[in-house]
Amino acid sequence: MARNEWINSYLEAILDVGTSKKKRFESNSKIVQKLGDMDRKDNQEKVFSPIKYFVEEVVNSFDESDLYKTWIKVIATRNTKERSNRLENICWRIWHLARKKKQIVWDDGIRLSQRRDEREQGRNDAEEDLSELSEGEKEIKDVVTTLEPPRDQMTRIRSEMQIWSEDDKSSRNLYIVLISMHGLVRGENMELGRDSDTGGQVKYVVELARALANTEGVHRVDLLTRQISSPEVDSSYGEPIEMLSLPPEGSGGCGSYIIRIPCGSRDKYIPKESLWPHIHEFVDGALNHIVDIARSLGEQVNGGKPIWPYVIHGHYADAGEVAAHLAGTLNVPMVLTGHSLGRNKFEQLLQQGRVTREDINKTYKIMRRIEAEELSLDAAEMVVTSTRQEIEAQWGLYDGFDIKLERKLRVRRRRGVSCFGRYMPRMVVIPPGMDFSYVLNQDSQDTDADLKSLIGPDRNQIKKPVPPIWSEIMRFFTNPHKPTILALSRPDPKKNVTTLVKAFGECQPLRELANLTLILGNRDDIEDMSSGSSVVLMNVLKLIDQYDLYGQVAYPKHHKQSEVPDIYRLAAKTKGVFINPALVEPFGLTLIEAAAYGLPIVATKNGGPVDILKALNNGLLVDPHDQQAISDALLKLVSNKYLWSECRKNGLKYIHRFSWPEHCRNYLSHVEHCRNRHPTSSLDIMKVPEEPISDSLGDVDDISLRFSMDGDFKLNGEIDASTRQRKLVEAISQMNSTKASSSVLYSPGRRQMLFVITVDSYDDNGDIKANLEDIIKNVMKAAGLTSDRGKIGFVLATGSSVQEVVEITKKYLISLEDFDAVVCNSGSEIYYPWRDMVVDADYEAHVEYKWPGESIKSVILRLACAEPATEDDITEYTSACSTRCYAISVKQGVETRRVDDLRQRLRMRGLRCNIVYTRAATRLNVIPLCASRLLALRYLSIRWGIDMSKSVFFTGEKGDTDYEDLLGGLHKTIILKGAVGSDSEKLLRSEENFKREDAVPQDSPNISYVKENSGAPEILSTLEAYGIK
């Protein structure tokens, strides 16, 4: 019953809080509401909540049975008093919360167990497929383990990788694109900490862009971010272009720039959780900019041939997805830096058991974020991490990365052994660079100077004034001459500051030898801080009082970012030590900053500091939970002058390893190594004729121009009729004879706009409906009524095969010659009717990368069915298969896995594909990762020089499982109501995944509807509303 007495005391404390704050909680119903809503209000609550504290203690510390017994006891002893009724109500409510938490933990445990089993099964399947070893591999199978570096060694660039040398790269003219989509990004006066979206990532990408632009061989660096023209923020964030740095003198480069791309609402700031529906709009805007720059750079330094990005680097999940789409469209390597990972955050929130999956997803859009990270892993050639811990403990949680399988595939590639279409992104550890220009020469000098001259009687003779922050810190100390133990972090429980204070307070020799300085953010009033921060600071103050540390511990209320270097200098001048005792430290940037000022360091052994200390060899690692180990390490460094001096020298000697030039050399070396494995094909941009050709023969290229120059002329200058006819026939025949040549490219020069018909019109059996004929004719008729009718091209994009398209057009008397291009098999192939429906070989090569080919067949047939199936439930649909599409026929009524489930299982096996259900879910198209209807249309827009904003998509209210992709972007979308009978979208994703509103913009001005059974006049009216008249 002792446990119940604790519960009773907590419940009484809750009631006391409610009584003392009666004005705030006027009735029992408001207390109950407080209990139910406390987790959702945690981010907004700015004061410490005793109610929340006591409720969490009860829920987290006691078993459900104890709570139930307490409730029974309260019921048995209740009376008519208001307090008794409130106690009963609150007790029941807390018991309900405890049961709810227990259920959440139970469900989460089952989910994690199932996911572990699935990952293990995926790894086993991959290993079975990879078990067929070549003769060369069998001979050296026994020495596989010797080729991998020991796990306790720091990752290094492999010997076959050439280190980036500035001597032989100066003429390469590289164009690099960085993307950081969210937050407030600018080059000067960065508002770091203004909100949760504007933090260290902003500073990192800006400094990276500048550093890369100063590297030999790099011609231009563009940092793409979102343009924000809102009165809520400074007007500088609305400027479309900002120069970050001038090119190095004599380099001939362009420097680095911030390019702000409009997307989403123009007049308000959008937090990162709400940016997901606008991803495709950002992609199209970024694509326009990159194409313009590639063309411009090509004209300047490459003889007119476009200079495409050397690499596209996405930062965070949203920019990672943008980079994946851009890299797929342009066929250039993609690099990803996660910065902060969604699955890691999701797992931590679930383990706490306070919030349901639904609430987490609603607040953070976490499932949408995780899918973006998985997609980024699919497309990424390389993932840049700060530490090895990030690879194993964070990226290891993702379906798309398995460290054991990655190592096995890497060994096979190095030996030239087939990987059977499996890919894993290469994880590389490249610590963030730092700008050491602010470090003064005297900071790196080996001097024995102390503070005597600064705080002694000769202070007035010093010409240089003492920094204000020094005076602010030293006023706390009885003896400021002592060495300073410096800790600098935000007041977060994870930073483990209270353990440091305990270690200092309980070690008398350390207290006698040194002072402790705690820089814990900025505050005016502790009560105005968030509950977590206020608890940490209150505990620190209590410990200072408990151990009587007055005069030995400094805890200033305020400091400026510009004063941080002076804080490090003060600790170094006193021959002090810097400590980071965090429970887990993902990287540890402050450790590098401290080393730059000559401070030895003591750091947690969990996370990034392990790699940092291996590189710098300037301090000691400790267990953050062991107070004795912390005090011993601090005492050892402070008391041993020789050790202190050696650590200082080592830190200053090796700090260049964390400089931006070193970071850029490592970065470009890894990127170059990845490019050697990336079959980049050139993407040509068609030149639009200065004057549009005539409408009469526009669809057969500019034949009239050719034969008019070569034909036989009469004396009056006219061409003989027979000669004209003969030349025309020869020209058409010559076109047909060369139609298979991939080098013959088609540019509809007179086309300045594209009408794309993407209606997925199928009946319940998966057959194309007859209304497709009316849709096509109405769209073309509406186009013919516009003043731009001669400038509009037509594209048909469908999930059907080319044979089925030809058959259906013949059946419904649709003229294929009216189309400039036909996109088939869900975007895996492009055909040109003007070339007798021959496939675009360039596009096939464009989407080939990471395509597993024949290796996908057996795997997808094994995984597609959700339940055991017979042989004829799902079968290969041979007539629809091609080199870039594996089509599967699904019998009606057979339960198959959803797209998200199939993708997950393929990723676990190292297979990167795009999955599309089409023809009313009776067919499954497995196509290359970089292939889709939207990507095919972007490919055509680049080649033909037609901006995506000048395209109009005609679609239905529903469609294939790639339907959502067609709704976002700069193009206009006209939804034809009632045009689609049966769709495939029920197989897109599960209910637990993200919702459509997280992927498609709501109330977009680019989406319009045409009522059911509408004809050409109604379509024309909608076009006129878009300005197409």
How would you characterize the overall build of this protein?
It is a single chain. By secondary structure, the protein is an alpha/beta fold. Among the domains are: 50-121; 174-429, Rossmann fold (3-Layer(aba) Sandwich), CATH 3.40.50.2000; 467-658, Rossmann fold (3-Layer(aba) Sandwich), CATH 3.40.50; 748-849 and 931-1026, HAD superfamily/HAD-like (Rossmann fold, 3-Layer(aba) Sandwich), CATH 3.40.50.1000. It contains 34 helices and 27 strands. The strands form 4 sheets. It has an 8-stranded mixed beta sheet with strand order 3-4-2-1-5-6-7-8, with helices on both faces. An 8-stranded mixed beta sheet has the order 20-19-18-17-16-25-26-27, with helices on both faces. The chain has a 6-stranded parallel beta sheet with strand order 11-10-9-12-13-14, with helices on both faces. Helix 9 runs parallel beside helix 12 (366-379) and helix 17 (497-505) packs parallel to helix 19 (531-546). Homodimer or homotetramer. One of its GO terms (biological process) is sucrose biosynthetic process.
